[in-house]
Amino acid sequence: MARTGVGAATAALLAAGLATAALGGESPSGRNAASAGRASGGAAGALPAGGSGSGSGSGRGGGPGAAAVAGGLLGGPGGGSEGAALSPMGAFTDSGEQGVQNLAGLQEWLGGTTVRVGHTYLPGDSWDSIEGAGDLLDPWAQWKHAAPGRLFVLNVPMQEHNEDRLSDDEVRGLIRSGAQGADDAHFTRLAQRLVALGVPDTVIVLGWEMNGTTYAHRCGPDPQGWKTYWNRIVAAMRAVPGQHFRFDFAPNRGQDAVAWTECYPGDASVDIVGMDSYDQPGGESFYDQINEPYGLQAQVDFAAAHKKAISYPEWGLFRNGDNPDYMALMLSWIFTHRPMYQTVTDYCPHGVWQCAENPKASAVYHALMAGRKTAAPSVTPSAATSAATSAATTPKPAATATPSPASATSPVTSPASASAADSAATPSDPSDPPTPDGTTPSTAPSAPAQGSADAHGAAENCSPMQLSAQMQQQYASGEVCVRLSPKSGRSG
Question: pLDDT tens across 118-164, in order?
């Protein structure tokens, strides 16, 4: 929707006083902490500069309450567009079996609104965890199989010891090692495990919040090397037969340590441009969250320019406490911009169901989300996924791993240590230098490579073609990409 669309929605919410007052309370004064993904979109200049959206409190004087006011704008109960369905929604409620059980409780609390998105994280403590070892993934695969129209979203770290506060020098060495192929086998094993569990269409949120300082998989110490490393991981996972993964590039909202655009690895290896967006820093209005450099509007504009879907893997309350205005405006933003999926972070201080610290925002969330229809997630792989699945876009690892810098936390893994099955599915060889956007040039046979894109960028003419069993033994990928062009003299 055009910027004016979300501007009208947010301005109307403000004018109607959709705040705690609309629910019969006072404007929020306390400040809390919460963390999660942010929604995208918004109209520059649509909200009062510096305004927090507290409004005049029309609900106090017998005016419409939160459900009626916002329902009229967002559709659903009390609204004028009851046929409109919510974008696929869910929450991060916990990991493993407990997280799966909590989704059922959240759906019951929402009066049956279908929770279609299951979201969890792989631990970044060890490579075994990043490979999906143990039983963490099994309950999620079972949850997805239990009903049609469900989407599984998995955050995947790019480094072990991911939260050990490694120095920039250590991170720089790990990035360069990974960019040369030292870690390919780990991600191949993860992809094989997901395919074997029957969730080959998992959305992979790879190296999330890379523009910050929290994780060892951050981008800042070496953006160019990081992009090459991301592309190697995507290529290794896409080379596994049977996969239909979609990869979500999800920075923190705003500048943070480095502009997230500096970390973008290229359209061929990204399917979704996500954003983690919490209600922070303290005192920042929703207007600021939209219009700040690299904020919500920048995300929406960037995704549109690159023809990508958007998402909000993490969003929720935080530095501004129990803020019902933020909750109403963020949900309005999400509804207006129709992300591929959105998952609120549902634990204190960010959440609305399991966290008792945010009763006012919780009431708004419930009023706007309960009893709603939910759209089924898209199951069609994007053009980037289809094209990049081909052997033509698969870089091959170096023959031997480049040692990481001397560090107790540095992974030292050689592709030679992979099992025979891993080796068959892991790209093998190489030396082609990366292109300016961090991708590695094609090393596939010349005929398929022609189909990946021509001088005019006609990648949309590239059609995947299944390989025979004999050819699959020779090539790592199960597909090639063939460009279809009309014959000379024909217009069809």
Answer: 999 999 999 999 999 999 999 999 999 999 999 999 999 999 999 99
Encode pLDDT of 84-93 as tens digits: 789 999 999 9
CA–CA dist 421, 240 (Å, integer): 10
Residue pointed to by tokens 């009229």? 72
pLDDT at site 378:
82
- pLDDT tens-digit profile of 196-237? 999 999 999 999 999 999 999 999 999 999 999 999 999 999
Q: Residue 461: its pLDDT value, please?
A: 42
Q: How far is CA 167 from CA 143, 163, 206, 353, 406, in A?
A: 39, 11, 21, 37, 12
Q: Which helix (H) or strand (E) holds 204?
A: strand 203-206
- What's the angle, vertex CA 228, arms to CA 222 and CA 231, rounded to 5? 135
Give the burial class of 30: count Cβ atoms within 10 A of its Cβ; 0-12 exposed, 13-18 middle, 19 or more buried: exposed
List the beta bridge partners of residue 345: 92
Torsion of the alpha carbons at 311, 293, 51 and 285, rounded to the nearest 10: 50
Residue 469 pLDDT: 54
Cβ burial 249-267 (10 Å sphere, 16+ → b, else e): bbbbbbebbbbbeebbbbb
State the Cα–Cα distance between residues 331 and 13, nearest whole angstrom.
11
Would you say 437 and 405 are in contact if contact means Cβ atoms under 8 Å apart?
Answer: no
3-state DSSP call for residue 343? strand
More confident residue, 329 or 454: 329
Sign of the Cα pseudo-torsion (24, 26, 30, 33, in order):
positive
Tokens of 243: 């996969």
> CA–CA separation, 424 vs 206, rounded Å?
23
Q: Following CA atoms 142, 143, 145, 146 in sequence, which dihedral angle do they give, to the nearest 10 degrees?
A: 110
The pTM (predicted TM-score) of the whole model is 0.68
Angle subtended by helix axes 3-15 and 66-74, to nearest 10: 170
Hey, how many other C-beta atoms are within 10 angstroms of the C-beta on 437?
Answer: 15
Q: What are phi and psi of 466, to 5 degrees?
A: -70, 140
Q: Which tokens belong to 283?
A: 């005192």
